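Predict the 3D structure for this chain.
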Amino acid sequence: MPTSPLQFENVTHAYGQVASVQNINLTVEHGEFVALIGPSGSGKSTLVKVAAGLEQPTSGQIYLNGSRAGKRLGQTAYMPQSNALLPWRTVIENVVLGLEFTGQRNRETLNRARELLAQFGLAGFEDVYPAQLSGGMQQRAAFLRTFMMERPLVLLDEPLSALDAITRAEIQDWLLGVWRHFNYTIVMVTHDVHEAVYMADRVVVLSARPGKIVRTVEVGLARPRERTNPAFHRYVAELMAAITV
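Done. Predicted structure below.
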């Protein structure tokens, strides 16, 4: 039987005496798009950092593909809130940066990156520096750098929060297309309930600190989703109510 890409089993994480998340039990299935929402400080970002191996749980276990994963760094693709593009490097040099750190940069990976530039809306911009790109294009470059790691589990920490509303909506649709094309499993942190309903198969709601799962909602809307659909707004209202409890 296939195993789940990611599983939290009774995971608690604390900074000193202050618990950020507590007793988290969550399984993410293959090809699923899961959104994490909750009030500020509820531990959403902490959870994806724990999954990525950037933080270690105080107690509990993390499983990747069914195996207990103590050392997780490099086993998933992780994208922080900031695009973290290096201003002195061109787009193509930024895109392969993660592969450099793992010793995988070579002619083959550079050719692979160049092939993907068009699909990520960056054709013709490989030799441009980040400051010469729009905010949306900078974010696409950061996504490509993340996906170049070729990890089936992608962890996104508020990747669209710095974009204006129009650009954000465009990138949402583009990211959904990339997700479907590559059949990734995505866990995304967001503060935007509308974004969560628009993008995710399942929305997980965390309580105020220490973050605990207080609600999980399956979004039963066909794609592409219409933001004007009354059913869409019923999901938004349900999740907003869960957050404010």
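The mean pLDDT is 91.
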